[in-house]
Amino acid sequence: MEDMKKRKMDEGSNNGSGETSTTQDYLRSLLDPLNKSQLVDLLSRLGSQYPSIAEEIKGLASADPVHRKLFVRGLAWNTTSETLCAAFQMHGEIEEGAVIYDKATGKSRGYGFITYKHMESAQSALGAPSRLIDSRMAVCNLACEGLTGASTTPDLAQRKLYVGGLSPEISSEMLLNFFGRYGDIEEGSVAYDKDTNESRGFGFVTYKTVEAAKKAIDDPHKLFGGRTIIVKLADTHRSKTVQTHLPAPMVPLQVPMGAGGYAQPGKAPAGGGAPAGYAYPQTVAPYPASSYPNPPVAPAPYPTQSRISYAPVPSKKEPLGHSPTPPVGMGGYAPYYYPKQ
Prior knowledge:
Elements: H1 2-31, H2 36-49, H3 51-63, E1 69-73, H4 81-88, E2 94-101, E3 108-116, H5 119-126, E4 130-133, E5 136-142, H6 156-159, E6 160-164, H7 172-179, E7 185-192, E8 199-207, H8 210-218, E9 223-224, E10 227-228, E11 230-233, H9 234-244
Antiparallel strand pairs: 1-3, 1-5, 2-3, 4-5, 6-8, 6-11, 7-8, 9-10
Helix pairs in contact: 2-3
């Protein structure tokens, strides 16, 4: 009897597993034609209704580094990997963090990466994307977004300002404190030389709102650090700079012929090769017969006259000596002969 019960239980379990596999295959065949947006909507609805599905989605997302890795730009040239990690460790445990250096020069390239151990830590850091690191305003966003993060919104051209005429003593922190009176700043710093780390006399400030940027531009008091500074949209300054550095227009020149001029029939061109810019031998396409019609025949200016025949005149031998009759000259006058001197 016990053996019979075990057989029935084994058969039931086998049938259940078969039905489960069949159901999964059937669901996969239904989900396969759906696009990404449809699948995201479906899973978000199921996750909001069933907590177990939501936890499974969170587990898969947290295991993927794409949700835990941040891209940090706007770093100072002297910022190290240790300084970068120290600025972000307040949000949670850091798995990896490093500043990217140029392989040829060994100098910082002005950006780095932070990878958190948990996805929630990365989300906390993204809640305050701008922060001061070594007197420079650095900005972070998900590494998968690259430079197409939150700061590259369509209104970025109206929020980013160019500040020129700065004193060499003005630091990035002083710049941010001065322009912070107009509104919240998302990003900003003084432009420094990579080799000397000295100020280049200008900088950039990006506000979080367009209204704050307009206030900074419209303020008539442009004195900062004992100098009159220039404040305008960075996009306008960039377009003018590009126009002043445009190369001169290039005039196309005809390639000169090699020695020997044009190829002659039956002879190879000079130098053993074809003339520069021309194929050898050259073939000329025939002109169509109807391309150039024959010119019209001009009418004759005078009527054609018929030829008049005259009777033949017999030739006779004239006698030697003076002519018995004086020859008649032009117009019927007798010719005048000068005596021989």
